[in-house]
Amino acid sequence: EVQLVESGGGLVQPGGSLKLSCAASGFTFSGSAMHWVRQASGKGLEWVGRIRSKANSYATAYAASVKGRFTISRDDSKNTAYLQMNSLKTEDTAVYYCTRLSYSGSYQDWGQGTLVTVSS
Amino acid sequence: AIRMTQSPSSLSASTGDRVTITCRASQGISSYLAWYQQKPGKAPKLLIYAASTLQSGVPSRFSGSGSGTDFTLTISCLQSEDFATYYCQQYYSYPPTFGPGTKVDIK
């Protein structure tokens, strides 16, 4: 059974930093691209970024709204993906989901999400 | 970025009704479209990918159609567990983008 478990969310002040983790199991993590998607309260889904596998040079891509502030990484030995968030803004307040890109290109597996609140 | 729109933004329906949700892309995306269902406090659940392919385990009352810019999600006979918000998403080009959602609630 595929499992994705996010952790690391919490309350942080504007301008602060936070690092989220996504622990994966039940599939070949090292061969999978991992994505992050967020959702502000009562709002829709917004793609944040992704990291590809080693075979694809660990290539990353980011939404324009977070580029230069957020960094996605992975540790295949730990089956874990990370989202480092710096220079946080109030508008970054959201539930952050990690998700696995399936062979079809859609998001078949999702974590339960972790809440990030940026507030003074 | 490709902009996705959905209509209606919400609808009220009764159990047993046939429900259709429309999704439109700002430019052609071939069949690179997925539909998700989301219930309050839960992660989205993949229903359909490649515009019309039913994800394993999803009831056959769900169906998808369309290609290019116009797509539909149909629930043939609404069940109580189908009351939720539905999102379309394109994965034709980066960045992947989602529609704003359609909330289906009880009439």
Assembly state of the chains shown: heterodimer
**What class would the helix/strand composition of chain A place it in?**
mainly beta
Strand content of chain B: over 45%
Query: Using DSSP, what is the number of strands of chain A?
Result: 11
Strand content range of chain A: over 45%
Q: Structural class given helices, strands, pairing of chain B?
A: mainly beta
Largest sheet of chain A: 7 strands, mixed
The parts of chain B where pLDDT drops under 50 for at least 5 residues are: none
Query: How many separate helices of chain B?
Result: 0
Percentage of residues in helical conformation of chain A: under 10%
Q: What is the CA-based Rg of chain A, rounded?
A: 14 Å
Mean pLDDT, all residues of chain A: 97
Number of strands of chain B: 11
Number of helices of chain A: 0
What does this protein structure show overall?
The complex is a heterodimer of chains A (120) and B (107). Chain A is mostly beta strands. Chain A contains no helices and eleven strands. Chain A has strands spanning 3-7, 10-12, 18-25, 34-39, 45-51, 60-62, 70-75, 80-85, 94-101, 107-110, 114-118. In chain A, the strands form two sheets. In chain A, strands 2, 4, 5, 6, 9, 10 and 11 form a seven-stranded mixed beta sheet that branches. Chain B is mostly beta strands. Chain B has no helices and eleven strands. In chain B, the strands form two sheets. In chain B, strands 2, 4, 5, 6, 9, 10 and 11 form a seven-stranded mixed beta sheet that branches. In chain B, strands 1-3-8-7 form a four-stranded antiparallel beta sheet, with no helix packed on it. In chain B, a hairpin with a 6-residue loop joins strand 4 and strand 5. The model of chain B has no long low-confidence stretch (mean pLDDT 97). At the A-B interface, strand 5 and strand 10 of A face strand 5 and strand 10 of B.
